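Review form for a predicted model. The reviewer records the input and the model, then writes brief findings.
Reviewer: anonymous (R2)
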Amino acid sequence: MSMTPQDLARRAARTAITLDSIAGGSYPPFIFTPPVVTSIAPTSAAIGSAPVTVTVTGSGFLPYSTVYFNNGPEATTFVDETELTIEVDPSSASFPGTYPVHVQNATLKSNAEDFDFTGAARTLTVVAPYVTGDAMSVDATISGDLGGNPGQMNWGDASGPEAFAGPLPVTVRHTYASNGDFPVFANDSVGITSPTITVVIPNPTPLAAEPESEPTEGGGGAASAPAKRRKPAP
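Model under review:
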């Protein structure tokens, strides 16, 4: 949003302070005027792209002026009273949208200009098949875009979150200590969360019972071999 000279004059009149009114002396008036932003360049960047230098052009900038991006202070380079620069990292953006950019000289705040993050929102997905031959373990593969942020796997049990890092895809193995249904999802440090999947760890399969031996006539247990008959003495 740009301001007309009339707007600036009205704002300056509201914030005018004279040393005469403070000290009762005869001094020329000091006017504390908020900075004015007339434009920014560039005005947009694609989510996930390389960092860009945003140039803020206007008037009333001071060596201690600070550029605010989406209402957060940024490391600001003072070029002169009409130009400031900041670095914006689109790879850390999560969602497309419009973000205000303004300048502050201490408590005096300028008007704002809009900066747009364009493109699709970052996403994360998780698949977690069982480990072959081990029904208590899964190999979770995380795909998507971390945007340079740290990530963590949430296994749904008492083990707590497990950190992981990109680039994606990456596979993380987890072994459960008990059976049950466990909600599993991944997220990054700025709130991008995958859909939750349910990992089902079944009860252990009981061992098959060994067949019992058949009882013999006259008593239980296995049958014994017949005794050999002794020959009579000559």
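Findings: The longest strand covers residues 134-144.
Further findings: The radius of gyration is 37 Å.
Recommendation: see findings above.
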